[in-house]
């Protein structure tokens, strides 16, 4: 299995690398367009800020490369948000794979803390990523911005309001949570992605 | 609904787990990676590894350990101890830690919180505060509770939040080691004052103490060391109990 992780100016790339190695897959971490195009699977991880990351991707022509990928692609956290149309974070125009807005959480009660950080449950799961009885399972989130529930929502989580824990459209899959930090449930989701 | 978190803390010296561990049929208790993996299997939501080594050599050993933990364990973990400047944070995050915990260095140099938040994001920056209750006031201490500062816990926690801390880890020196429960009154005041998660630390002796710190202390997470290390409380059983008591935990 030839898995490529998109290398860019983001943190947490190595957590995904470690998680895949635990599943017996050694990924290549690369920003080379040719190398990304020929991989069986591509993972677009991310922790960082939307605007500066989009500028970086455009400066390295990675925006066009990612949009043009034909194999299964998995965006994680910021990676998922950057696959959307536009983000309130830094008023950033994003890749537009999912035609939806990324919004900042607006707390309604004192107990609603931003970022949403910790373990929360998956509901209404409806993509191949969640094969194996993952409805209701806990996964690990760290984020201040969210994607509203829309046509492409593949799993929902409730924090302040119901939002998209996962998106799916054609060959593009995405999770707002971190499967690489979500214990055995996260391992199952990564395994499911590798089997697509 | 967001779950309340249970966090075992492992003290590390020269790459080994310090506190005595008393698990039946578990031989590698001194190995921080094996112990962390065991806690993860038992249902721990996060881990904290605290480096209590002082030497330069010890620091290198700890960084190597962080890499091993990141490679083997699939839940988030925080590292602390000996973090004095941004370079230390970079080294530990690059080794694979998800968050760093800073304590004395933040009190001495509060700018460090802003630097970490700006470079790596608030979510990686846990500000740990050791405080003792003295004549009605909660006062902060430096160097693992050895040096008094005279600063108020609530004032310092508020400043840490405004400077960009992502979480506050509050250890009550008054309650630590006594096993009579967490400092729930002070914790509830912190929860009502702050807009970031609060981790309760110091005082866990029985399962009911965890329930109380969530229900009365309004804590987002509870940290403990010896009750887990000595096998007095099993995390899997603790979480079953908390669920029965109506606390939302991950099972």
Task: Tell me what you see in this structure.
The mean pLDDT of chain A is 95. Chain A has one domain: 3-Layer(aba) Sandwich (Rossmann fold), CATH 3.40.50. Chain A is α/β, with parallel strands linked by helices and 196 residues long. Chain A contains six helices and 13 strands. In chain A, the strands form three sheets. In chain A, strands 2-1-3-4-13-12-11 form a seven-stranded mixed beta sheet. Chain A has a four-stranded mixed beta sheet with strand order 6-5-7-10. Chain A has a two-stranded antiparallel sheet with strand order 8-9. Chain A is globular. With 251 residues, chain B is an alpha/beta fold. Chain B has one domain: Alpha-Beta Barrel (TIM Barrel). Chain B contains ten helices and eleven strands. Chain B has an eight-stranded parallel beta barrel with strand order 1-3-4-5-6-9-10-11, surrounded by seven helices. In chain B, helix 1 runs parallel beside helix 2.
| Count of distinct strands of chain A | 13
Widest sheet, order of strands of chain B: 1-3-4-5-6-9-10-11
Terminal CA distance of chain A: 11 Å
Rounded mean pLDDT score of chain B: 92
Q: In the CATH scheme, what's the topology name of chain A?
A: Rossmann fold
Shape of chain B: globular
- The overall pLDDT average of chain A reads 95
Number of DSSP-assigned strands of chain B: 11
Broad shape of chain A = globular
Our count of helices of chain A gives: 6
- Biggest sheet of chain B, open or closed, and with what strands and sense? 8 strands, parallel, barrel
**CATH architectural grouping of chain B:** Alpha-Beta Barrel
What's the multimeric state? heterodimer
β content of chain B, as a range? Answer: 15-25%
> Are there runs of chain B of 5+ residues with pLDDT below 50, and where?
none
Helix share of residues of chain A?
A: 25-40%
- Helix run count of chain B: 10
Number of structural units classed as domains of chain B: 1
